[in-house]
Amino acid sequence: MNSERIIRIMAGSFILLSLLLGAPASPLYHSSYWLWFTAFVGLNLLQSGFTGFCPPERMLWKLGVKKAGDQAG
After folding, report:
1. Rama region for 64: left / alpha / beta (φ>0; ψ in -120 to 50; rest)
2. Which string of b and e fits 29-49 if b means at least 16 CB within 10 Å?
3. Domain coordinates of the chain in residue numbers?
4. For 20-30, what is each residue's pLDDT tens digit?
């Protein structure tokens, strides 16, 4: 699994979790402040799309996870 795929899985998981914790209609509702985390993840995705800079992806690279364009083998 490459870093781009892991980032997409992480971002989607964070958004869904924060919506579950922040939406009043959710059975796991805790506080509406969790919606700020949803906005933070969304803004990070947006800026990453424009700039190509994604801190979690760089951390994954340092941990040895392959980049999106690298070939296995």
Report:
1. left
2. eeeeebeebbeebeebeeebe
3. 3-62
4. 999 999 999 99
